[in-house]
Design brief:
There is one protein chain. The chain has 170 residues and is of the alpha/beta class. The protein has seven helices and four strands, in the order βαβαααβαβαα. Helix 2 packs antiparallel against helix 3.
Length: 170
């Protein structure tokens, strides 16, 4: 079984296309689809902040655009996440370059999770992924956004447990 969130969701999806996986669970995978493909450039804007020595501003920009969050400084991960800013830029370059195939060859059943308050581009990506997979179930979680795995872990865990019970391999 593979579980992936955000950019980890994109990694898990691609792993499931190449390896034998029993089940795939993705929470708002970081994929740009449709009109959101035009919205690339986050990595370049973050890099501009880095070039000016503004590491914290680059991270704040990332969370504002990618996660819809303006209060990252209040999160327990702040300021430790600032040390990862170069990785965040590289991940965003990869996300901006990635194109979702219309038909994905993934043999495992997939649970696709999105939060009703998640960023529109990630909600659209999750829907497009549901359309592209042969065996998927899309679940929208009430009252949570992209950070549902940390802000509402029991809600996410309940959906995962339910999916795993329903899709036990024979």
């Amino acid at each position: 079984m593979l579980f992936g969130h955000s950019s980890g969701g994109l990694v898990a999806l691609e792993a499931a296309r190449r390896a034998s996986v029993d089940r795939l669970i993705l929470y708002e995978p970081a994929i740009l689809v449709g009109e959101h493909r035009k919205d690339t450039g986050l990595a370049a804007r973050m890099q501009e902040f880095l070039d000016e020595g503004e590491r914290e501003e680059a991270v704040k920009l990332y969370f504002r655009v990618a996660d819809g969050t303006d209060d990252v400084e209040q999160w327990p991960i702040w300021p430790d996440c600032v040390a990862l800013v170069e990785t965040m830029v590289r991940e965003n370059r990869a996300i901006e370059a990635y194109c979702l195939d219309d038909d994905l060859d993934v043999s495992a059943p997939a649970l696709l999770l999105t939060g009703e308050e998640g960023p529109e581009h990630l909600r659209a990506a999750t829907q497009a992924l549901d359309d592209a997979l042969d065996d998927s179930r899309l679940v929208e979680l009430d009252g949570v956004g992209h950070g549902g795995i940390s802000r509402a872990p029991e809600l996410v865990a309940n959906e995962v447990r339910s999916f795993l019970r329903e899709t036990r391999p024979s």
